[in-house]
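Shipment paperwork, digital attachment
Item: protein structure file
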Amino acid sequence: MAFEGLREFIRLLEIKNELIRINCPVNPELEITEIVDRISKSRDGGKALLFENNGTKFPVLINAFGSEKRIALALECNSLDQIGHEIESLFKNLSQPKPGLWDKLKFLPLMSQMASWMPKVISGKGKCQEVTMAEPDLTKLPVLKCWPADGGAFITLPCVITRDPETGNRNVGMYRMQVFGSNLTGMHWHKHKTGARHFSEYKKKGVRMPVSVVLGGDPAYTYAATAPLPDNIDEYMLAGFLRKKRVELVKCMTNDLEVPADADFIIEGYIDPDEELLWEGPFGDHTGFYSLADWYPKFHVSCITHRKDAVYPATIVGIPPMEDAYIGKATERIFLSPMKLTLIPELLDMDLPPAGVAHNLTVVKINKTYAGQTQKVMNAMWGAGQMMFNKILIVTDNLTDIHNYDDLVRHLAITVNPGQDIIFSQGPMDVLDHSSARFAYGSKMGIDATVKIDEEITGEVQKTFDLITADDSLKRRVNSIPGIESVNWGPLNKGIPILILGVRKNKKDYLTEIVDSLLNHEEMYPVKFFIFVDAELDIDALEVVSWYVSGNIDPRRDCRIIKPHDDEVSHFVIDGTRKLAGIDGFKRDWPNPVVSSMETIRRIDDLWSSLGLGDFIPSPSLKYIPLQRGQGAISIDK
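Attachment content:
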C-alpha cells in the first residue's frame, strides 16, 4: 500500500512503536538538532521524532528513515534485500530471449505491471495544493538551523524538480537550500549533478529555469531523489516501482513543472541563470565536517502550497552515524543487483560503512577466479556513476563477511601486503571532500584484500600475525618516543598488526621522524599498519578512527609504503591528522568538525526530562569538541 502523505507514514510508525511525539516547546534553531543527534546515535538509530510544538503550525518529522527497520517500512518491504532481489528478477525476465509466441504472451503481464509504475499527470489540483499561501513565506515553515556555524537555516530534505530544456526529461535531485528570506533560497547543486547540468543548459539559452521543490508525500519520493540513477532516468519511475503504484502528478500553479499530487508541501519558483550567484553556506555536512561557503544560484520562490494536514520533513547530517547512513544502506542493497547485472558480474556483495559517509569508503566482495581481477573491479567501480567519488575501495573475496567489521579488519590487516596490494589512482572527488589538495579532484586508493593467485605474488613473504601481542616491552618502546600522546593497543591485543597513535604535530616531517624511531626497533617489524590521528580524537573506537582518517586523507599524499626488512612484508603509514598550512603546506581552508555549542548542550540537558525520551543521553558532541580549532566553520591553523 502506497503512502498518501506523511501522516499515513506517521500512523504506521506509531503502530510499529517507531515514533515519539514531542509536545514541549523546542526551537528549530539548534535545539532540534541537538536532540536528534543524541537519539540518532543511540542503539539501532533510536526512534523517529515528531516535534509538534516548534513555533509554527507545522509539526517536524525527523529521523524517520533512521534505522534499517524504518527505512524498510518507508519503502514498504520486509527487508532492503527484497527490493534488490525484485530488481534482479526483473532484469532477468527482461533480458531472457522470447523465441515463441507463448513466451511472448507470458511476458505481457510483466510489461503491463511495469507500465503501471510510470508517473502520470492528472487533471485538477492535488492535495498538495489544498492551501495556497497568500504571499509565499518560507519563514512560516519550521526550517532548521542545524549547527552553530551554519550560514543560516536550511531546508534539508527537498526533492528538487528540474527539466532538461533540450529533451524535456525530468530530474528529481536532493540539494540543500539555505533560506535567505521569505522568498529566496540558495540552490546548492554540485557541478557533477544533473540539476547543475540543467542550469548550465538554461544559461546557454539565456532563459529562466523553472524549479519546483517537493517536501514530504510518500517517503519513496524522498528516497528516489537521493538514488544514484543514470542521467535521464525519471526518479518518479523508481518511486512507482518501490511503492508498486504510479506517482500521480499535477501541474504547478506558477510554472510548467509537475509535482506529486499527495506531497505535503510544494515550493515553486525559478532561477535566473543571468543573475549573480549568492554566497551560500557554511553547512554542517554529512561528512562530519562543515562544507564551507561558496557561490551558488539564487532560487526565487513564486508560490508555496501545502496540504491542510501538512507535516514538514527534515533531517540533520553530521558526524556519523546519522539518519543518512540508513538511506545509504538502502542504496547499497537496492543497487547491488543492477551493478552486478550490468557492470561487474563477479560482484557478490557490497557495504557502505557509515563511517565512510557514502563516498569515502566502500567495501565489495567478489568471486575471484583470475589474476588481476581485483584491479579490473576497481577500475569498473571508479567509472560507475557516483562511485567515481569513492576515495578508498576495499575489494575482498567470498571468504569474508564484509558486514562484520571486526572480521573484515582482521582479514584485511592479515591478508594485505601494502607493497603489492595497495594501488593509487587519480580522479574526480566529491565537492565536499576537504582533504584533497585541489577542489573536487584528488587521489584514490584501492586495497586488494583478496587471497592472491600465484601470478599476483611478489618476492615478499606473507607472514601470519596471529601471535602479535602488545607486551610490556613493545608498550615501553612506543611510549618512550616523544610526541606520541595516546595509543590504541586493541588491534595488537587481538593479533591484528595495526597500531593507532594519537599525536600532536609541531613541525614538518614530524610523523616521518616518529615512524623512523618506531622501525628502528626489531620488535616493531611485525606491525604492518601505522595510523596517525590528532591527539584530541578518541582513538578507542575504530569506527570513529575510520571516519576521521578516511575524511582527512588524500591517499597518494598522506599514505606511505615502507619497504620490508629482509623477508618481512611492507609497512603502511597513514597520516589521518588535520592538514595545516604552516606544517603541511595545505593551501585550502580546513573545516572544523560538526559539533553543538556548549550553550545548546546545556539547554537540552536541562530540557531532557520533559521531552519524554527516556533515560538521559549525553551529547555526542562532547567527544568531538576538543577537535575544534576556533568556533567557526574553518579550523584555525595553530
